[in-house]
Amino acid sequence: MAPSKKRPAAQSGGLRKKPAARHVDTEEEEEEEEVGDEGEEEEGEEEEEEDDEEAEEEDDEEDVTVRKKPASKDEKPKSRSMKAPPSKREAKTALREAVKKKKTVDRLKREIKPLAQKLKEKRDELRIADQELEKLNAAANKLGRAVEKETKAKELRRKKRARVIKKNAGERVRSLREKLNEAKADIAKFKAAEAQAKKKLSTAQKEYKQLQSKGDQYSHHGFSAKRAVEAAKADFEKAKLGLVHASESFEKCQEQLKTAQEKISQIKEKSQKPSASGSTSAGGKVMKRPAARAGVSARLTAVHGRRFMAFTFVQCAVPALPSDGAAQSTKTVALLQCGGTALLMAVIWKAGMTYLQEQKNRSAMTRPWTAVACTPDAGNSLA
Questions:
Q1: How crowded is the C-beta side of 330, counted as CA atoms within 13 Å?
Q2: Mean pLDDT over the full length of the chain
Q3: Which of 15, 129, 243, 319 has a CB 3.0–4.6 Å from the CB of 333, allowing a cystine?
Q4: 382 bridge partner residues
Q5: What is the pLDDT of residues 124-140, one digit of tens each?
Q6: Dihedral sign of CA atoms 97, 98, 101, 102 in order
Q7: In a 3-state reduction of DSSP, which class is residue 323?
Q8: d(CA 26, CA 31)
Q9: Residue 27: inside a domain, yes or no?
Q10: At a CB cut-off of 8 Å and minimum separation 6, what does 197 contact?
Q11: DSSP states of 155-167 as a string?
C-alpha cells in the first residue's frame, strides 16, 4: 500500500517504525483537543479516525511483511502450542468499546443521581409517616384500654347493684314476714282484749242496773259501779281501736310482702332469661356461652379493633394504591399529608363512643329494676 500523505512511514533496513509512539502521540493530541472548542474537537476526532485507519493499514502491512520474511538459519522453529500475539487492531477495537461503555455508564449515573435523591426524600417521608402511624396506634390502644376498663367497671357496678338489690329484696321480704306475723299476733291479742273488755263491760252494766233498780245508784256502791262501767267502756274502745289498727297493719304488710315477692320473681326471671348469644338445647335448657369467651370477645372488640382502626381507615381512604407493605406506608403518607391525623382520631373516638353506647344499651336491657311482666301469683314463689 502507498504510505499516508501526512505522515509517511519510515522504512530503513526493511523495517517499519513502531506505531506505539504514534498511538501515544494520538492520545496526547486527544487530551489537547478536549481542552479546545467544539470545532477543534470535531477536527481532532476526524484526525484520530484517520490516524487509526493509517495505524491499521500499517499494522496490516507489517503483518504481511513478517509473514513473507524468510526464517533465518539461527532461528528455531516455534512450537505449535504457542499462541499468536494479540492483534493491535483488536486491542484498539476493544479500547473503543470500553470507552463507549464508560460513556454509557457515566450517562446512567447522571440519570440515576436525581432518582436517588428523590428516593432518599421519599424514605425520609416514609420514616416520618411510620412514626406518626406508631403514635396513632399507641393512641388507639390507649383509647381501647380506656373503653375496656370503663366497660368492665360498668359491668362490675351493674353486677354489684344487682346483688345489692337482690339482697335488699330478700331482707325486705323477711322483715315484712316478721311484721306480718307480729300483726297477726296483735290482732289475736286485741281480739282477746276486746272480748275480755266486752265481758267486763257487760258485768259492770249489769251490776249498775241492779243498783239502779234498788235506788242505790247515788250511794257509795252506786258511784263505784258507775266508774267500773266507764272504765270497762274505755278498755273496750281501746281494744276495738287497737284491733282496727292491727288489721290495717296486717293488710299493709300483706301488700308489701306481695310486692317484694314479685320483685324477687322479676330478678330471678332476668337472671334466668336467655341471652342473645345463648343457644337452646333439645330439652329446652338454655346453653349460655362461657364467660371467658365473652371476655375475649370484648377484649378483641375494645382493643384489637381500635388498634388497627387507623391502618384500616388508611386502606379505605386511598383504595387506588396496591396492598403491599411499601404501598401501605405510601397510603399513610398520602393521608397524613391531607390532614389525616384529625380524621383518624375522629374515627377512633366515634368507634369508642359507639361501643360504649352498645354496652350501655346492653346493660339497660339487663337491669333488675326494669319493669317486667309477671303472673299475679309470682309472689308465692318464695312462700
A1: 13
A2: 67
A3: 129
A4: none
A5: 999 999 999 998 988 88
A6: negative
A7: coil
A8: 9
A9: no
A10: 232, 235, 236, 238, 239
A11: HHHHHHHHHHHHH
pLDDT of residue 18 exceeding 80, the answer is no
What residues contact residue 143 under an 8 Å CB cut-off, 6+ apart? 306, 348, 349, 352
Q: How far apart are CA 113 and CA 107, in angstroms?
A: 10
pLDDT for residue 21 is more than 80:
no
pLDDT category at 8 given cuts 50, 70, 90 is very low
What grid cell was written down for 137? Answer: 396506634
Number of domains in the chain: 1
CATH code at 162? 1.10.287
Question: Which residues, in sequence order, are CB contacts of 379 under 8 Å at separation 6+?
Answer: 257, 258, 259, 260, 261, 262, 265
Residue with cell 336467655: 274
Place of cell 353506647: 357
Q: What single letter denotes the amino acid at residue 74?
A: D
Helical spans, DSSP H, in the chain: 20-35, 38-68, 88-214, 220-272, 291-299, 305-307, 309-317, 325-337, 340-365
**What is the C-alpha separation between 381 and 266, in angstroms, rounded?**
11
Enclosing domain of residue 192: 122-274+292-370
